[in-house]
Write a structure and sequence with these properties.
The protein is an alpha/beta fold. It contains ten helices and ten strands. The protein has helices at residues 27-35, 105-114, 141-155, 167-178, 200-210, 212-222, 238-241, 263-272, 288-291, 294-308, and strands at residues 7-12, 18-24, 53-55, 62-64, 90-95, 119-123, 159-165, 184-188, 250-255, 277-282. A ten-stranded mixed sheet has the order 3-4-1-2-6-5-7-8-9-10, sandwiched between helices. β9 (250-255), α8 and β10 (277-282) form a beta-alpha-beta unit. The longest helix has 15 residues, at 141-155. It starts with 6 loop residues before the first strand and ends with a helix.
């Protein structure tokens, strides 16, 4: 399936970590940009300039101006609902799960669908893929989200939603609670607390994080570089940070077939949060990006739009 074109972005966090990212404009705007790569009047003004690359502002990183969608050019755009003028003012930051990447096909499908509801900034967390540094598995990653949100603001989006999956959900909640500056948060398949080992997949995750051979395997097989040592101090858990998100709305999405985190995590997050908040328990839904259907992502996009209308 062809995907919407994107523009490569290199971000830098407050602590100096290089973050590999991509900016996918809203559906209508990306179509205009792909049709006019020479920077004419029809080009998308937020991201497309007359030069090969363009600095988007202080702290905002650099965006390439040529469409980088699969297949290239106009053929890279699937026929999806064009973005309205309201949607072109909406920026959606997508935060992947542990060992994930915005370059993976499942993540690109999600970005493609969400681009029908606003521009999308997708990125690789520190220690993942082509980003620098080492992952701290949910602690310093709030600085990575902050860099993506800052870039979305510099590009020109007025309303920002952060959509996180699994580890990315925990980071999205913690970022919104501790740093603020976002207008809506969606936490999909996220943990409510740290050190959960109640399922086999999570015991395997802890082995990969804590054991030298596990960290080596994650580096080789998943291109994920994990920081050594324990947290000191232990970061605020997501269920506590959720209470600090208000007045931004929070949507918690969790499947009853999640093999990593049972439903108690979703309920603990929801209980810890203040209004406005919403909880979706999805029958038959598994875990994070790999189990997310286009229909579910469309519903999330519509929820974001409804809160920004």
């Amino acid at each position: 399936m062809p995907f919407s074109p994107n523009f490569p972005v290199m971000l830098r966090t407050e602590d100096g970590v290089r973050i590999d990212a991509a900016h996918t404009p809203p559906a209508r705007a990306s179509r205009s940009a792909a049709m006019d790569t020479r920077g004419g009047a029809g080009a998308w003004r937020r991201s497309v300039g007359s030069e090969a690359t363009r600095t988007t502002g202080e702290g905002g990183g650099i965006e390439a101006t040529r469409a980088a969608g699969e297949g290239g050019g106009i053929e890279a755009i699937e026929a999806i609902e064009p973005a309205s003028q309201r949607d072109t003012d909406v920026g959606i930051v997508v935060a992947h799960g542990f060992t994930g990447s915005w370059r993976e096909r499942q993540a690109r499908r999600i970005v493609h669908v969400l681009s029908g509801y606003g521009g999308v900034i997708a990125f690789d967390f520190r220690g993942h893929g082509r980003s620098g540094g080492e992952t701290t598995v949910g602690d310093l990653e709030i600085l990575d989200v902050e860099a993506a949100v800052r870039h979305a603001r510099v590009v020109g989006y007025e309303k920002i939603a952060v959509v996180g999956f699994s580890m990315g959900a925990a980071v999205a909640v913690r970022h919104a609670g501790l740093r603020g500056g976002v207008d809506a948060v969606v936490a999909v398949s996220g943990p409510a607390r740290w050190y959960y080992r109640g399922t086999k997949p999570m015991r395997q995750v802890h082995w990969a994080i804590e054991q030298p051979f596990g960290r080596w395997a994650a580096r080789v097989a998943k291109r994920t570089r994990i920081a050594r040592g324990r947290w000191d101090p232990i970061p605020m858990p997501p269920h506590e940070a959720a209470a600090l998100i208000t007045p931004a709305p929070l949507l918690i999405v969790h499947g009853d077939a999640d093999a990593f985190f049972p439903l108690e995590h979703a309920h603990q997050l929801y209980t810890g949060a203040r209004e406005p908040k919403e909880l979706w328990i999805e029958p038959g839904y598994g875990h994070a990006e790999t189990a997310a259907t286009p229909a579910l992502i469309h519903r999330i996009g519509k929820w974001i739009s409804s809160n920004f209308s």
